[in-house]
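Q: Start with the shorter request: fold the first protein.
A: Done. Sequence, then structure:
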Amino acid sequence: MSYSKEIVASVFSEFDKKRKQSESVRQMHLYEVYERIPELKEIDYEMSSTGLQILGASLQGKDGLEERIAKIKERNKELQDKRAALLTADGYPVDYTDLKHQCEKCQDQGYINGKICSCLKNALITKQLEASGVGQLISGQSFENFSLDMYAENVREQMSYLLDDLKEYAKSFDKESSNLLFVGGTGLGKTHLSTALAKAIIEKGYYVVYETATNIFSDFENDRFRDRYAGEEPVSTKYMECDLLIIDDLGTEVVTNFTVSCLYNLINTRLNKRLPIILSTNLNSEEIRKLYNDRITSRLFGDFAIKFFKGEDIRKAKRVKR
């Protein structure tokens, strides 16, 4: 799996809190029942010495060892039964003072025999979805609820091929997957399918960042004036290092020498690292050429697979249907 250090640290911190909270609840329950049933404390004290008793029995030699251990186990069973009887007699469930975990499979450790537990995987995915920039979009935008019915018949077949193509891209994604350039007017499904791609690839365990061009360049701008000696990592680092970067609404930013320089550096750095990018824009190819310099356009049209979104604004079509 490939998650940012911040996400991994955050999730493991949460798991640590869960374990501490479970232990805190257990200690409160023990304190409560010891106050009400003092005999339980004596029983627990005796039971806690079981391991030492077995060790002592072993040190006495092999002769009669099995018998000595059997007696210790028998006594331990008597204590357990007595403990359970005292608890239930006072109205408590038998497991009231047991240490309870949110995930009993791994006991909130995150791993089972060295393999990642489903609870840790789900926590990492959830945290990555929140951090990626698509957390709020995902509930309403996925491959499953992308409808081709809103497209006119003359483009529906083409959009169906595109949908299948993007599903396959998500299915076979790795860190060296191809770069994609989504080109098409407003309301043709670019954001919906970008979100669907992000969700599917995050669920495979990859570190995905989804952000608008405007916000990305704003982060680069802010990093220019940060205190370089503050010890904090620049916010823009994630755009250079994530497994997949999805840039939405390219061309809506205020284009300046600085933003053009940032865009070229971002694209060039990721291409050199063989880290894929998905760019989405409402601009047509001619508008892209006019807005950006030759170095950028040559990269976009030479190193990206262009996916054309055609048709009429499906958001308007949805409003009309309602």
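Q: Next, the second protein, separately.
A: Sequence, then structure:
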Amino acid sequence: MLRLRPYKACDAQTITKWLKNEYAFRQWSADRYEKYPIHPQDMNSYYDRDKDNERIWAMTAFDETGIIGHCTMRFPDENSLEEIRLGFVIVDDKKRRKGYGKEMLSMAIQYAFDFIKVSRITLGVFENNTAAFQCYRSLGFQTVELETKESYQCMGETWNCIEMELVK
């Protein structure tokens, strides 16, 4: 049975090992980290910047075998508590395509709607990450057209981001 808990610094030891190549790393983090590979202390330093920010937090999914997934949740609008933005969504590379990502995100969605009482959950996914896109669609997320498409420079290419939302 999968469970969800707040992220702990020791989780980085496991999570950073799932990023086996720079392509997967950039799909996960875009340009948020300067270099690949990252080490556990890099991940913890990144999260430490927001440790006193009550509007962003990280979660870790686990079961009896250990850590299976990870994501962040944040309020993107500093003047509102109506929307949660999911980010840094990742599942153990050895356990992908087995439903763990969907289960972890289902718990995050339930937490956001039932406990935080938001009316909308959003996320962004790169066009080249079809497995993640399909997972989000299977959970009910819909594509949202933005006036300006969000893009990132990754590995010498321009990667476009698909905006998605789930409305309660």
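Q: Describe the second briefly.
A: Helices lie at 12-15, 22-29, 40-48, 100-115, 130-138. Strands lie at 3-6, 56-63, 66-74, 83-91, 120-126, 142-144, 151-154, 157-167.
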